[in-house]
Batch of 2 targets.
Target 1
Amino acid sequence: MIAKPKGTIDIKGNDSIIWEYVNHVISNMMNSYNYEFIRTPIFEMSELFHRSVGESSDIVRKETYDFKDKGDRLITLRPEGTAGVVRSYIENKEYVLPDVKKYYYNGTMYRYERPQSGRLREFTQFGVEVLGSNDPIVDAEVISLQYRILESLGIENLQININSLGNNESRNNYREALVNYFKPHINELCDDCKERIKTNPLRILDCKVDADSSILKNAPKTIDYLNSESKKRFEEVLKYLDYLEIDYEVNPNIVRGLDYYDHTVFEIVSLDNDDSKNNVLGGGGRYNKLIKELDGPDSYGIGFACGIDRIVSLLKEMELYKNIKREIDVYVMYVSEEEKLYSLNIVQNLRLNGVVCETDNLNKGLKGQFKVADRLNAKYLIILNNEDLQKGLVTVKDNATKEEEKIDIDEITEYIIGSL
Ligand code: HAM
């Protein structure tokens, strides 16, 4: 037997019902907010992620799936969605129109992480990227959209943690403050952090090894190093969130694990999940330098992504979703070849009219078919027999009350639709 690779999952059974429902809520909401669906390749040139997610990020340093294709090109399975969307925006010169581009995506991402609860090697994210506007109102809209989608799924104890990294000047000042602060403590930190102080000292703040150390907890806070322009911008984002009635916590420890961010950064967590490391349902932020760094124009971007696997795991624990089961509307039963021919039309008509319908494909006897209908949780049974069919009738049985009725064969679809 060949087992699935470590860190991957099969989505099936009741999980797939929740999964489909989550996707349905996402696409409806994205539609209302006028986001355009974008699908970018699952693999991209490796350089794209090195130049966006960043050489000093854990993702690029340790977690990407890289390979050379048969043409000797360095390829990487996408570890996240932002880089591909920005690459497509630039490559297709979407920026020539004076419009804001609002994209949403939903697809698998790949990170070679240590598999554990909430952390997979193949996982699915949905997310948005808004390109071309620097208005702080967009930051607030993106954050509120993320919140509203999770809220519409019935997730209640959500907390938005928000922070600002500021513009270049603010980030440089902050970087300097961090280096000065960490230098005397560097021997107390892990080996990776000893590297990070040289490459990207901000990364020390989201180190998983040193997370609980008081050195990290007492480190300088980004907020204290924002210049007046960045501070004003951040205050506006918070003001708009207040107007949208979105609660948030300003949390100076949110620095995010990807290198492309500036200004607003945020994460959304579920307080119902006590696994502190893996309860982050989504995160995002502004990236006003990234488009230019990827050889596009000097433009603006912001977005978020949420992990659908984590959302589905959380929903499965909730009362609302616990009793979800796959069920069908109708099971059509027959035995003889003649009855079978009638069943073909009945089943097809019901299905074309949106009725979830199943029938026997294993030539089982009636007893066996009753058992299957029960396993499928059929609401109604349509039982065909030659004698009734001669008179133009079929038997319909309500599987809950066990009541039976004879119905004209030409009216069966209408009858079922009316009864459901
Ligand atoms: P991220 O914080 O790396 O951001 O990932 C977003 C979400 O994806 C996480 O909050 C988590 O729910 C889910 N996720 C990440 N890694 C895993 C994993 N190994 N297993 C299961 N779920 C996971 C980004 O990816 C950015 N591209 C977000 C963004 C969009 N920023 C701007 N625009």
Target 2
Amino acid sequence: MSDLEEPTHFVKKIIQSDLDANKIQRVKTRFPPEPNGYLHIGHAKSICLNFGLANTFAGECNLRFDDTNPEKEDSEFVRAIIEDVQWLGFKWDGEICYASDYFSKLYEWAQHLISVGKAFVCELSMEEMRLYRGTLTKKGTASPYRNRCPEESLSLLEKMKKGQIDEGAMTLRAKIDMGSSNINLRDPVIYRIKNLKHQRTGAKWKIYPSYDFAHGQGDALEGITHSICTLEFQANRPLYDWFISNLPVPSKPKQYEFGRLNINYLVLSKRKLKKLVDDRVVDGWDDPRMPTIRGLRRRGVSARAIRDFCDSLAIAKTDGIVDISQLEHFIRDDLNQHAFRAMCVINPIRLFLHNYDPAKVEILQIPRHPNKTELGFRSVPFSSMLLIDRNDFTEDSSLSRKKFKRLVLGDYVRLRGGYVVKAIGVDKNSKGDIEQINGEIVEDTVGQEPPEGCKPRGVIHWVSEVHSVNCTIHQYDRLFNTALPEEGSQPFVDYINPESLVVKKDCKAEAGLADASIGEYYQFEREGYFCLDSVLGSQSNLVFNCTIGLKEKSSKYS
Ligand code: ATP
Ligand code: MG
């Protein structure tokens, strides 16, 4: 950080003062995901904070997998997390680290604790242990195995490690203080027997360290100076410090906690997101309705928008709920600046221009971005047979110009980037539905003011029918129909919005979109921002996901 900049939040202040006081020479942070699911936007806050601090203070940030629980972990998640961190635009220092790389060292340290009388092998069952542990108001009771001699504990630990003891029959516990007001210090379990294959170490280990026993020691081994985690770990901090001061660790990291990101209308918990995937409520971890990095990406949200949003968040010592409109603001703002414009008619109806030569095709040049002419122009074919949106036309000429700034029978409207046209009649089918609007162009109005007396009501989008590209649009609404789905009286899955995905087929986009590539995003004028998801079939049907509307919507649910 330059001398002129004032640290903006408490973690920065701590780091700055540690550097000023020469307590550390260089800051080192880490992002420590557990590979039991895909990353979500809450993790992005932690990623931006940890990698951001390393950038700000010219330090380093590690990526470390907290892979101590083989039950729920998988190499699929490891690969996805690596990709997502990279996609977000961050690069870790050195090799990727894994808590499992430290299993041997941790085992040695467990033996060390036993030798100095600070750990013991316990034979209480889970249930007994819970009873002995006490409560917030009642002190715990010591395990009858607490004073077992170190030699015996060492030999039992060895047997546990070799798979000679049944799962659940024994644990290794730190010997701290059963009378502590902090339950975490009441002789916590540091090793459990788990007869499970680990995705990296295979069948080598039959015992696995607890999160608390692995995390701080991993920090110490990597030389992490500031171990930043979310508030729920505050009560674990004394235990973190206890291990660091009771083990011969090579460095002395410190833990700091900040408030985790919560956003209304979203659920940010890998466990709950996994349930949505497993129960097929959504189409997978990358479903565009998911708040995962994958989902947001597929929805059309850029890494830049996610980073800008995360940088706008308070780093505080309290938890809060961020309004989803704050996230949406950053998504929209980013797309407004960077998305090329295009036209796509979602509910097409034909507009036939009777005074335009049916054999003629004009190629209009329309700016890719209205405020950035340096981005150039796109070629948009114009012909006598156009498609406009059904909702942009009415026969009701009594509607005021202020109320209906689109095409009205007998009146004028401007076609975006093209002519001013007038609606002169309609063709209807036997049921009375309009099948075609008949119209006329006003000559010489491309890029020019119309003649006196001809006042277009507004501007609408359009495509030339024969040149248009078929597409399917996925329109999304919020996944939950209540702001705080985790806090209702029913399980969170009961608040799923059944209309969170609406598929619109037979939409027609301007010709140039035939060349769009997957992941590319556009502003479809007057409709919103859309991202190309996939291309279906030989007909080149383009599937677009709607990222977000043009304007902040007032939620129908709030
Ligand atoms: P989840 O509850 O979604 O499973 P977690 O905390 O168990 O999240 P981890 O993989 O352990 O997930 O998290 C990796 C890092 O990301 C941790 O440091 C954690 O504190 C941080 N993190 C997780 N969720 C959030 C969030 N909502 N806001 C900020 N940081 C988060
Ligand atoms: Mg976790």
